[in-house]
Amino acid sequence: MLSRWTVGSGSYNPASMKTLLFFLAAVGFSLPFAAAYDVSGAKPIEKLDEEVAKVKASKKLICIVYTGSDESCPNCADAAEAGVKAVRGVAECVVIKEVQLKDAAITGKLTPAVNKVLSTQSRMAWVSFSVFDPDMNTLIATIGRMELQKDKKAVKEFTEKIKAAKAELK
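Given the sequence above, the corresponding structure tokens read:
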């Protein structure tokens, strides 16, 4: 079989070539439809009020997870997984997508502190975790994709900072 594809062998199999072209076309066609990554356990921004009530009752913090418009970015997926691990047990997560930042009905319900953080987020392939007090008036810590992926020290500092803030809520 390999000899049929070897350069200069003089052999050519049209059936194999059709199969190869079909496979390449199928892969190329499916790339734009790659699955969006998920932020495990996070609720959509539309459930923010419920999550805020939950964190106040459970003495936890609230984490606003921002996701850029590239929902198939494998780097963002890895960073999101690391972020979920960092906030687990400390904060409830709510996801806001880049496109939702243009919706005044959504951003109008957010506090000035949250809107300030969201206004500085990177676009396209990005994910960040910003942890706030239960009233969402004070930013406790924020971490983005690059640190979540490559900087274990920054992740550790982020985790320690939010754990200390949660301990103060008791």
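The first strand starts at residue 43 and ends at 44. Try to locate this feature in the token string yourself.
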